[in-house]
Amino acid sequence: MKLKLKIWRQKNSESKGKIIDYDIENISPDMSFLEMLDVLNADLISKDEDPVSFDHDCREGICGSCSLFINGQAHGPDRLVTTCQLHMRKFKDGDTIYIEPFRAKAFPVIKDLVVDRSAFDRIQHAGGYISVNTSGNTQDANSIPINKDDADSAFDAATCIGCGACVATCKNSSAMLFVGAKVSQYSLLPQGQTEASRRVINMVNQMDLEGFGNCSNTGACEVECPKGISLDNIARMNRELLKASVKK
Ligand code: SF4
Ligand code: FES
To answer: To pair with 40 at 20 to 30 A between CA atoms, which of 91, 166, 187, 189?
Structure first.
């Protein structure tokens, strides 16, 4: 396949970026999107040009690093996949592909397609943990009976990989789907109850401090989430927050 790539290039967080055109050929439909970018970068390096910076790590849909906006969609045109799981067979020979970073005030661009998502880490630090007695008499988690529906819903929430597609897709740059998933995965389990009130209050406060917008129920985040995280998690987080505020 031959393709025209229109890629956001930006030297650093201070500089102004712009779209630069690249022509690329000999792309196999079986390549992943990131392998296609590897081919481009090998070509740029051979010409002594600056390769395009983009984030990636596991390349198997687990780590959440490969945050790219492709033809106006977070993680590209496929559903329920990350950019690293997107294959070039989703495009046609001769296509023009726009590749941009995830854009949000709370995700500043570091270079080219790489954005700083440490705001998510700070939200996690604010409450994404449980206290465990490690004195040697810790109860085996499997010995605590948990309703199957709750266990399944907690597991579904825990599949959030923190990629940020929900934020990049939302017209308000809201992080409610991410925070809703992180709050839900603990609030549904007995192990998460000790810190339940302060967890939801602290995580929501941190989310607001980081400059994410509010939720206006468009549901775009759920559509673009590569892990299919449900909007139910936002509703659960709001209920948890109300409960915690009444208790205060
Ligand atoms: S909720 Fe979905 S889109 Fe948002 S960070 Fe988690 S996995 Fe990514
Ligand atoms: S590189 Fe890890 S999810 Fe894509």
So the answer is: 166
Express each pLDDT in 226-238 by its tens digit.
999 999 999 999 9
pLDDT, one tens digit per residue, over 61-104 is: 999 999 999 999 999 999 999 999 999 999 999 999 999 999 99
C-alpha 164/C-alpha 181 separation (Å) is 12
Residues ≥6 apart with Cβ < 8 Å to 173: 103, 104, 105, 106, 107, 167, 212, 213
* 71, 158, 170 from 78: Cα distances, Å: 11, 22, 18
Torsion of CA 190, 192, 195, 201, to 10 degrees: -120
pLDDT by residue (tens digit) across 155-183?
999 999 999 999 999 999 999 999 999 99
> How remote is the CA of residue 27 from the centroid of ligand 1, in Å?
29
Instruction: Quote the DSSP letter at residue 171.
Output: T
Spacing, Cα 42 to ligand 1 middle (Å): 31
Residue nearest to atom 5 of ligand 1 (CA): 162
Closest ligand to residue 167's CA: 1
* Residue to substitute in 66, 84, 160 for testing ligand 1 pocket (most ligand atoms within 8 angstroms of CB): 160
Spatial separation of the C-alpha atoms in residues 57 and 247, rounded to whole Å: 42
In this predicted structure, what is the pLDDT of residue 135?
Answer: 84
Atom index in ligand 2 nearest the CA of residue 83 equals 4
